[in-house]
UniProtKB/TrEMBL annotation:
Keywords: Ribonucleoprotein, Ribosomal protein. Pfam families: Ribosomal_S9. The lineage of its organism: Eukaryota, Viridiplantae, Streptophyta, Embryophyta, Tracheophyta. This is Small ribosomal subunit protein uS9c. It comes from Arabidopsis thaliana. Coiled coil: none annotated.
Amino acid sequence: MASITNLASSLSSLSFSSQVSQRPNTISFPRANSVFALPAKSARRASLSITATVSAPPEEEEIVELKKYVKSRLPGGFAAQKIIGTGRRKCAIARVVLQEGTGKVIINYRDAKEYLQGNPLWLQYVKVPLVTLGYENSYDIFVKAHGGGLSGQAQAITFGVARALLKVSADHRSPLKKEGLLTRDARVVERKKAGLKKARKAPQFSKR
């Protein structure tokens, strides 16, 4: 009995603020004002806004920087320069501009070593005319190349550099011609023929 009376007294000590509505068997409790409660208008229109900035890859940043560098070195573009030469090989065409410098080579606004994939033979092609005349550290090379593959473009640059060096001095013709650097290499891939697998390769002969 003592436990029942203690329970009854504890329940009586609790106070509830309740309002009995007109509907039977329903009790409504008033909401307490919360500290984090939003106003009615802002609660409806509340939305999460996220702003994110995507940084450009490092390769694109390098290209942008090299573009600014080339434009600063070549005011007016390639066509406005004096020491310029055009080289061709297979389907590749390269426009080459020479300027006094330290031997830097930039192809299509990229470093030559990166553009030519670090291939030592192709990198050697580019500097052969300068090495022949002993100018490997005296001129910077700026190139716009398109068409063909990297091998054809590298050889087209060689021809373009040799032609540009003729505009530096007419005395360069003799040593460059001696090395065969002023001759256009007209060799191209022979076209495929009808009835053959390639230009000259025929299908295997079958007697029956």
